[in-house]
Amino acid sequence: MTQPLDPTVIGPPAPAVSRRSPLAGGALSRWRAPLSILALLALPVLLPSQALAVNVLIYGLYAVGYNLLYGYTGLLSFGHAAFFGTGAYVTGIAIGAYGLHPLAAMGLAVAAAGALALAIGAVSIRSRGIYFAMVTLALAQLVYYAALQASAWTGGENGLRGFTVARIGLGPVAFDILNPLTKYLVVLAVVGAALAMISRILASPFGAVIEAIRENETRARACGFDVERTKLLAFVLSGLFCGLAGALSAIHLSIVPLDSLAYHTSGMAVVMTLVGGAGTFFGPFVGALAVLVLEDTLSLWTPHWQLALGTVFILFVLFLPRGLWGTALARLDAMRGRP
Amino acid sequence: MMGQDTLSRRTLVAGMAATGTLAGIGRPRPARAAETIRIGFPTPVTGPFGAEAKDQIRSAELAVRQFNEAGGLDGRMAELLVRDDKLNPGEAATRTLELIEKDRAHFIVGALSSAVQLSVNEITRSRKVLYVSISQSDTINEAKDFSRTTFHEALNPHMTTAAVAKHAFGKGTKVAYLVADYAYGHEMLRGFKRAAAAIGAETAGEILHPFGAADYSTFMPRLRSMRPDILCICNFGRDQANSIKQANDFGLKKVARIVVPVLLHNQRLAAGPDAFEGVVGASNYYWRLEDTVPSAKAFNDAFRAAYAGAVPTDYGAYGYAAIRSLLMAVKAAGDTDTDKVIAALETLTYDVAKGPEHYRACDHQAVQSVLVTESKKKSEMANEADLFKILEIEPGSEAALRSCDELGHRA
Question: What distance in Å separates residue A299's CA from the closest CA in chain B?
Answer without folding.
Answer: 7
